[in-house]
Amino acid sequence: LATDKVKSQDTDNDGIIDNGGFADQTYDAWKATGASAYCGGLHIAALRAAFEMACIMNDQNAANEYEAWLSKAKQSYNDKLWNGKYYDYDSSTSRYHDSIMTDQLAGFWYLRLCGHHYEDFEKDKVLSSLETIFKTNVMGVGNGLIGAVNGTTKDGQIETASMQSEEIWTGVTYGLSATMIMENLVNEAFLTSEGIYNTCYNVVGLAFQTPEALMHDGRFRSVGYMRALAIWSIQKAIELSTANKKKDLQIRNEDDSKLSSSVPSRLLH
Question: Name one GO molecular function term (predicted).
Fold first, then answer.
């Protein structure tokens, strides 16, 4: 089973998958060791999905197992990686362990697009991370005109730990924008996505050969890359946000109606 394989990669039995310090994740040139913001967040999202599937299948034993595993993973994730403002890149002692990674909320992004809210990631931590990323990785590099660089140091410099940490990934920038929309950071979201869109279409003129990665100096690589299709998550985020606003308005109207009906008519005039 896939989950059995995942358990074998939790080397310290703390509930969170551990990176091995080699190319074992999509940032295969930007190595991670131990618990990491990216893989740990995806792990939590996967455990939530496994728990929900077990519930649908009425498999109580599996549901209990995944629920306990999820609870343990969430605790370890926060204990090892949360630094008060954002999630550290990983739990190692490397020079770049506390880098600010644009993709640190990837797991949360997936869950929000599936209709979940803050069952597994606290809202205040999500907002703090997004605000930090926007300040350093978006506005701090190119003043928001080229999207979000994958990594910056804690003092806001471009992270040079690897080629990939220095790059702006088109799909990651669009995913970040979608997450911002779902968290009501709409202006920040569209400024961020406008930067990468304008660069790809108008500045470098790649149109439907959208690249995977760009550098802040205008270089790019891997045209026609699939990750840029994350732009559709922006559409989904808008739809979800609109639906949630309509639902909230309906609830408020119903509450107002109940309040009005419970107040004596003589007090309404």
Answer: beta-glucosidase activity
